[in-house]
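Q: Can I borrow your eye for a moment on a structure tokenisation matter? Would you mind producing a protein record, from residues through to fold? Write it directly below this note and I will take it from there.
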Amino acid sequence: MIIKGFEKLSLVDYPGYICTTVFTQGCNMRCPFCHNKDLVLGSNCSTYEDEFFAHLQKRKNMLDAVCITGGEPTLQKDLLQFINRIKLYGIKIKLDTNGLNPELLEIIIRDKLVDYIAMDIKNSPSKYNLTAGLTEDLQIIDKINFSINLLKENHIPYEFRTTVVDELHNSEDFKSIALWLEGASSYYLQPYKYSENQLSSESFSFPSASKITEYRNILLQKLKKVEIRGDV
């Protein structure tokens, strides 16, 4: 595993649980508003795997869970082995993903390797590549669709989530997303926040409280649960 680092204690990355958050190196998206530039573009030479498991051994009786995030964790060739090693400690595991590796996601769900999955929904299908900083490739949406449908089968607790950027999202996008994810059990809207470690030098804005509330109301017409996460 190429691990850039880990946060020893988090009360927010796996809501309801005390967890350690592991940050994997590398990503197959280039979202311009991403606040983890070092994880996306940094060299693949760092690894803190030994330090992580030493911490887990020391604090296993204090922790409820581990959150594996990135970057994009499903790029890691030995992710399954890493997850299985964590499972030996008898604690819960949450996986964050962008959904571009549905084949691996299917194995993880089928074999019940994690307890919770959070999948990013970058935007409506027509604006997905633009928002994710990718070239126009129809296979990307096919892969995202595959992952969405895997989660909607409800074999595992999950959430979809969108970081809302004023320049990239509007009400029409969320009408499209509502239809796309219709029937999904859990969806979170996260207002964009500026970071000095942002991937792009472009200037972005966070949505107003009235806008994000409007988007939530649109989504609630088709989705079971929609919440706003973070300050607006």
In short: The CA atoms of residues 100 and 143 lie 6 Å apart. The chain has a mean pLDDT of 94. The longest strand covers residues 3-10. The chain has eight helices and eight strands.
